[in-house]
Amino acid sequence: MENEKYVAFIDILGFKQKLQQINQAKAEALIRDFSAMLARQWQEHALAENKDIGGHIISDSIVLYSADCAPQSLKNILQYTIQIFRLAFNENGILLRGAIAKGEFNRLQEANLANLDKGLIVGNAYIEAYSMESRHKASAIMVGGAVKDDIAEYFADEYVLEKLRDEIPPLYTIRWADIDYLLEQDHLARFVGLAHEAAWLPHYYQTLYMFLTNVQSEKKIQAVFNEIFIMLKNQYDYRAVNVFIQNAFSTDINIHFREIFLKFLRKKIFQ
Questions:
Q1: Are 30 and 24 in contact (CB under 8 A)?
Q2: Furthest CA-CA distance within the chain
Q3: Residue 115: pLDDT above 80?
Q4: Could you state, in order of their start, the residue ranges of all structural domains in the chain?
Q5: Count of helix runs (H) and strand runs (E) in the chain
Q6: Measured between alpha carbons, how far is 109 from 121 in angstroms, rounded to an integer?
Q7: Residue-wise over 43-81: b if at least 16 C-beta within 10 A, else e?
Q8: Per residue in 230-251, pLDDT tens?
Q9: Which of 112, 151, 218, 257 has the least C-beta neighbours within 10 A?
Q10: pTM (2 decimals)?
């Protein structure tokens, strides 16, 4: 369709729970730092001069949109999105969740009053991206079938797409990082610290599952769980280890993650 565009909706995962743990001043600092990172990356990706890509920041959320459905427009949105996912984790200590849809979209331009700003955005692509974003409780980038097909056609194997089970209509995820990234530098320690601070809410396990999905090396998977146990025991105590194990078997957690974790525990017991 002539008026079709790509639209991404991204926000901070677990933001409401985060606000309950911090005061107003820290909340304002978090949003300022997050917004500053988004703006800096906008400049570094040369999007400020790119008339084919637009964006709109609303509190802890950002809406990205293209002027068309050209391959380069999708590439720009994917590159920017993956980069801010990584930097939000590395620099701001937060996880993001987002979705990219394809369809009609428009941002209406109207004059604002001195004390009444207008951010008028409308279109089925925005509604779809907003709806998809909340369907999977993990730090990942969700796409529907139309965007999945475009990614497969334009970029071949450049992005890892994973189909989520039991989702109707079909939903696919794009990983913003893999297990090697998690095992680099202090990334795993940072992730464990965030998860422990949040009492290991389900979305941390779901995000961990994203890192472990389709990993062929059992040694790397074993290394992740071993390091988590060591970090929790050394930085906190055995009660922290207990919380991690107990919460991992909640019915809210992906059953396939539980299977991977059970396999690890069996090896620990019988090694």
A1: no
A2: 69
A3: no
A4: 4-174, 179-270
A5: 11, 9
A6: 9
A7: eeeebeeeeebbbeeeebbbbbbbeebeeebbebbbebb
A8: 999 999 889 999 999 999 999 9
A9: 112
A10: 0.90
